[in-house]
């Protein structure tokens, strides 16, 4: 039995340290955060599991096991038949709810993450059993599993049957699911001494691993996967972060390291010398997308440390490509010392909170100086899952 969970993005040692502090019982603030976590976990106990086979509308392939979603920012035109669809960046079309896979998938990753963390810290087996069942139904059970591809994600009606950028439906959150599965497989911490979490069998471990082998193959070799990975914006960085995490989860540290190095070589095309992210500033929701892209890069930096690559300290040619400077660029608006000077339909200062805290943990002096002054979300779980997460709850 290991002394700490063998997690992917999350730091297993920090999770174990938090567990010990909770057992000690003297840290009231940490205990209060645990109560927030377990209240949310209790709500998930009465929900799910979910499956792509529960969809109301079949996708283009006609296979109920294929994941399907609709592009969120595309709307019917003013023509009588609504064709062609037109884009309104940042404005979400409610039609997307006709494809329920995206809705169910969000529930899968939120519930499995929260339930697994709740089990880790409390040892309540009901949490682990339900988390395992949620993952088993979505990824493993033959009658309900999702096919390991995203061929029909973010389709545009009357225009295509899916797009490469639909990969972000998974890449923005899938690494949290990998951490949940890693915790369930590590087992033992905070429980009664199982080699794996109760309800998560060796067959489940192998089944989930096999799904990820196939999914990584599709991400690597499909035209959509290759095109998405080549993007020089949040899409490309999330795709790279997802592929790095899956490779690391599967035990291929060399492949994970190579992907981190590939991204590092392209950071100068993503982050300007002043720390701005030009591709994200062009959006109608420039604050959201600036924090969103940096979320992918800071999570990748967490992975980088595990494979011996320090992205936090990197500065590319012409002083471009610095994640640290990108954090500096966000700090004035995050602390309220300056207004955000770019287009933003719904500014939420706390969207940068985890990014700044991750930077502070990595030794960024500017982040350390302001970490006590940043706005935090109402539901703040940082001390129990200390890795940057998307906090503004806006789907890209």
Automatic annotation (TrEMBL):
Domain Alginate lyase positions: 51-340
GO cellular component entries: periplasmic space
SUPFAM superfamilies registered for this protein in UniProt: Chondroitin AC/alginate lyase (SSF48230)
Source species, domain of life: Eukaryota
Protein name: Alginate lyase domain-containing protein
Molecular function (Gene Ontology), one example: lyase activity
Keywords from the named record: Lyase, Signal
Pfam families linked: Alginate_lyase
């Amino acid at each position: 039995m290991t002394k700490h969970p063998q997690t992917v993005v999350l730091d297993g040692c920090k999770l174990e340290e938090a567990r010990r502090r909770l057992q000690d019982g003297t840290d009231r603030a940490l205990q209060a955060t645990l109560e927030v976590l377990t209240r949310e976990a209790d709500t998930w106990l009465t929900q799910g599991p979910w499956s792509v086979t529960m969809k109301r509308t079949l996708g283009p392939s006609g296979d109920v096991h294929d994941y399907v979603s609709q592009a969120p920012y595309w709307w019917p035109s003013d023509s009588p038949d609504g064709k062609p669809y037109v884009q309104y960046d940042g404005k979400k079309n409610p039609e997307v709810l006709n494809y329920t896979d995206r809705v169910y998938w969000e529930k899968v990753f939120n519930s499995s993450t929260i339930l697994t963390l709740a089990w880790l810290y409390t040892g309540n087996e009901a949490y682990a059993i339900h988390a395992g069942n949620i993952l088993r139904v979505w990824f493993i059970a033959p009658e309900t599993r999702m096919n390991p591809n995203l061929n029909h994600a973010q389709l545009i009606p009357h225009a295509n049957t899916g797009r490469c950028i639909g990969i972000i439906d998974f890449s923005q959150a899938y690494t949290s699911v990998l951490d949940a599965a890693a915790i369930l497989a590590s087992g033992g911490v905070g429980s009664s001494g199982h080699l794996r979490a109760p309800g998560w069998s060796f067959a489940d471990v192998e089944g989930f691993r096999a799904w990820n082998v196939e999914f990584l193959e599709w991400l690597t070799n499909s035209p959509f996967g290759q095109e998405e990975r080549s993007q020089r914006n949040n899409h490309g960085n999330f795709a790279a972060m997802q592929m790095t995490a899956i490779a690391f989860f599967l035990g291929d540290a060399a492949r994970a390291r190579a992907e981190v190095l590939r991204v590092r070589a392209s950071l100068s095309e993503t982050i300007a010398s002043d720390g701005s992210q030009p591709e994200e500033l062009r959006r109608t929701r420039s604050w959201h997308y600036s924090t969103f892209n940096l979320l992918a890069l800071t999570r990748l930096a967490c992975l980088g440390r595990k494979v011996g690559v320090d992205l936090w300290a990197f500065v590319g040619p012409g002083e471009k490509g610095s994640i640290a400077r990108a954090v500096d660029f966000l700090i004035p608006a995050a602390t309220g010392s300056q207004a955000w000077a770019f287009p933003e339909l719904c500014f939420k200062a706390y969207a940068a909170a985890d990014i700044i805290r991750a930077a502070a943990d990595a030794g960024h002096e500017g982040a350390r100086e302001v970490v006590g002054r940043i706005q935090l979300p109402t539901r703040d779980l940082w001390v129990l899952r200390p890795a940057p997460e998307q906090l503004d709850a806006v789907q890209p």
